[in-house]
Amino acid sequence: MSPSKKKKVADAVDRQWTARVGSALLERLAEGAAVGSPREPLIVEVPFTGETLGSVPLGTPDDVVVAVGVARAAQKDWAATPVGERAAILLRFHDLVIANAHEILDLIQLEGGKSRRNAFEEVLDAAITARYYAHVSAGLLRPKLRQGALPLLTTTWEYRRPKGVAAVISPWNYPFMLSIGDAIAALVAGNAVVIKPDSQTPFSVLWAAQLFAEAGLPKGVLQIVPGSGAVLGPALIDNADYLMFTGSTATGRLIAQQAAGRLIDYSMELGGKNPAIVLDDAPLGRRAAGTTLGISTVDGIAFSITSGSGQVCVSCERLYVQSGIYDTFVPALAEALKTLPIGPSLGWDVDVGSLSSAAQLEKVSAHVNDAVAKGAKVLAGGKPRPDLGPYFFEPTLLEGVTEEMDLCRAETFGPVCAVYRFDDVDEAIARVNDTEYGLNASVWSKNVGRAKQIAARIEAGTVGINDAYQATWASASPMGGFKQSGVGRRHGAPGLLRFTEAQTVAVERVVPISRLPFLDNERYAQVMSLAIKALRYIPGIK
Ligand code: NAP
Questions:
Q1: Rg of the chain (C-alpha set)
Q2: Most CB atoms closer than 10 Å: which of 67, 77, 413, 497?
Q3: C-alpha–C-alpha distance, residues 336 and 60, integer Å
């Protein structure tokens, strides 16, 4: 790392995040009674340099119990607050996030190691999510008049009641948007929220909580308890009314078993081994970001492999390229990956940042080394870059990956992609679907109609056409996984309604429909059968 960049990172660390954001946490923990004895410090590292960013108190299971208790007490008034007022707080949060984006961008980069461009995705997502739910929540939560059992004799409404206290357990890779993004939907639905951020990245969400307080969120409604998932997770599941988990499939399975014990509902966004299909007629475009109009499959796939240094749940790790374009496209992609700006920078000048930790570097290196040892050919990258910082790894493209290599089927979660040639589209779709995962996929072709037909045959929760993941992710349509990649959906109407219980209220009038006057049981059955038969032909009644 150059001395000037090192100084910029050091200056940012010196901005005393611990004092500014960590004190907010202490204040929040102090709202509950469990705080008294000092907590062990949870040390947070700067992946760019390996230096310490700061520390926060390491929460205990008792802190979780207190946080849920405080949240539960605050939730009553919050649920009684009109939806319009709750939505207004979301819009103020939206404005504050945008106005103070430079701060959160620094923080996300410092605790996660990603490029500023990728950190900005988190700012966009939080703002879009807050705006969207602020605008649609009243409509989604409004009581709905539903078709009754028998017209005229009954009237039925569907109400949406908040679950109560929703727990959010989030990962380190998108620490701001994957924690506060889900909290936004839960909050506007009238829930209180307790977030357990990943131990590597507690600061971003503490910053978000501070901004929510400035936006007018009542005290106690949003609680943050940092600490180990294995230690705090069971306490959360034992006390919360709903759980939103983002993380690995293995942890998801464990948590689902615990949630089953209390029969609490949950949604989960888990791992992926995301494919892309590049058809012969894919729009290649030119590699001149900022100067070209139109779609470039080379740029799009390069972004899809390297965004967040490949540590995005929707990153592309498997690339299927049709024979007619393979020999043009693959060398162009390899060249693009080799020339993407990479390094530690708090500016906008690099595209690819660092891996987030020593453990990530070890896993990514092990996958690549195993593949190379078993015969894979490196078309781009393939090595760590200790000259840039302790955890940097080059954007990597591998050819000749086979079943006996670890990275063939397991999620690598790094800037590493295996490329395969195909002739026949049916064969490509079969290979794309031959995985336990089903999170995200993309199809690249000038023929959007054909690409949509292919998308319909792909087993994945989101499919981008000529887009890696941003168009699907940032839309108001549900996002989540098929197969082992998740349960339930975030975003869109389901992303809000999952934090509610549906309650049906029906009123019976004039006569009870279970026993009509002057009819014995047999006549009742005959009259009801006739009525039901007639209703079949009345428009609007199903
Ligand atoms: P992880 O190990 O499952 O950790 C995720 C979160 O779960 C962390 O906050 C962790 O806490 C906590 N945790 C760990 N063990 C727990 C337990 N026994 N009970 C309760 N909580 C527990 O996941 P990761 O490997 O760090 O994150 C990367 C994974 O997340 C990848 O597989 C990626 O695909 C997936 N992901 C999916 C999406 C999506 O939307 N589908 C988005 C992002 C990431 P501590 O680490 O602090 O102990």
A1: 26
A2: 67
A3: 47
Closest CA to 207 of 119, 147, 323, 321: 119
Instruction: State the sign of the Cα–Cα–Cα–Cα dihedral 454, 458, 462, 468.
Output: negative
* Spacing of C-alpha 271 from chain mean position: 11
Please tell me the distance from the alpha carbon of residue 398 to that of residue 318, in angstroms, as a whole number.
Answer: 10
| Cα(314)–Cα(525) distance, integer angstroms | 55
| 126-176 pLDDT per residue, tens | 999 999 999 999 999 999 999 988 888 899 999 999 999 999 999 999 999
Mutation choice for ligand 1 from 177, 194, 198, 470, CB with most ligand atoms inside 8 A: 198
The dihedral built from the CA positions of residue 114, 10, 392 and 331, taken in this order, carries a sign that is: positive
The label of the residue with tokens 């293995």 reads: 250
Identify which of 313, 316, 484, 487 to mutate to test ligand 1's pocket (most ligand atoms within 8 A of the CB): 313
| pLDDT tens, position by position, 313-348 | 999 999 999 999 999 999 999 999 999 999 999 999
Could you tell me how many residues make up the chain? 542
Which residue in the block uniquely carries the two structure tokens 């389901």? Answer: 494
Q: CA–CA distance from 266 to each of 254, 413, 486 (Å)?
A: 13, 24, 10
Q: Which atom of ligand 1 is nearest to 479's Cα?
A: 40
Provide the whole-model pTM: 0.94
Whole-angstrom distance, CA of residue 119 vs CA of residue 129: 16
